[in-house]
Design goal:
- The chain is built from 9 helices and 8 strands.
- The structure holds pyridoxal-5'-phosphate (PLP).
- Pyridoxal-5'-phosphate binds next to strand 8 and helix 9.
Length: 238
């Protein structure tokens, strides 16, 4: 597909996603301005990021450092008129934190003490501003998908707030594969409200993907991580 056709396809997909978000906000009495659309561009090239930014998307999500580091560098080299905010949404390994803090504006996936420590040290060394982070909560305790349980959350949140190089901004959740989102999302909203009452700056709730953004908006999501609905199907990772 040539770049003009691809741009037209992305524009059409983006228009549909924006309509879904607007409708979901109307249906649930939410202000559209409370919602940030994060385009998850994993497996897609930097040219797609640049096209999306040209269409007004500001927030870009990636889940693997070895892909995100060169892609963010390529986008920076394009010297676009607008700043791109990079979101790291994948599982983190300690040895990647030094790289991630250099381009990420918000890390969604803090899920254990060793990552808090590695991110804080890397942020101290390589950034002039504290790094905004979310704690990933697990709704189904599936270790494959990462995240802390509601019971573990307050200890990890306290660890984050002890580090000056990190700023606790809220929670992220990946919806359980098997459970019904209609039953899991209210629970998530309750966990987010509890965290906010202990840490008033933790106002972000990153939840909702291509398949369930309406449910997420209804239950208080502030950041939607949208991949396939915007970019199309991903090639299977080998
Ligand atoms: C890939 C990914 C998404 C986007 O998923 P879609 O179903 O394609 O919208 C959201 N969050 C995380 C953590 C992801 O890895």
């Amino acid at each position: 597909m040539n770049s003009e056709d691809r741009r037209a396809e992305l524009a059409a997909r983006l228009a549909k996603v924006r309509t879904r978000i607007a409708t979901a906000c109307e249906d649930s009495g939410r202000d559209r301005r409370e919602i940030t659309l994060v385009a998850v561009t994993k497996t897609f090239p930097a040219s797609d990021v640049i096209a999306l930014v040209g269409l007004g998307v500001r927030d870009i999500g990636e889940n693997r450092d070895h892909e995100a580091a060169p892609k963010s560098a390529e986008v920076a080299a394009a010297e676009l008129d607008t700043d791109v905010r990079w979101h790291f949404v994948g599982q983190l390994q300690s040895n990647k934190c030094r790289s991630v803090v250099r381009y990420a504006d918000l890390v969604h996936s803090v899920d254990r003490p060793s990552i808090v420590d590695a991110l804080a040290r890397a942020s101290e060394k390589h950034r002039d501003q504290p790094l905004d982070v979310l704690i990933q909560v697990s709704l189904d305790k599936d270790p494959e998908r990462g995240g802390v349980t509601a019971a573990e959350l307050s200890d990890l949140a306290a660890m984050v707030t002890e580090r000056e190089a990190l700023r606790l901004r809220g929670l992220m959740a990946v919806p359980p594969l098997k459970a019904d989102p209609e039953s899991e999302y209210p629970r998530l909203a309750g966990i987010a409200a509890d965290l906010r009452s202990a840490f008033p700056a933790a106002t972000v709730l990153s939840a909702g993907m291509s398949g369930d953004l309406e449910v997420a908006v209804r239950h208080g999501a502030t950041h939607l991580r949208i991949g396939s609905a915007l970019l199309g199907g991903r090639p299977l990772l080998g």
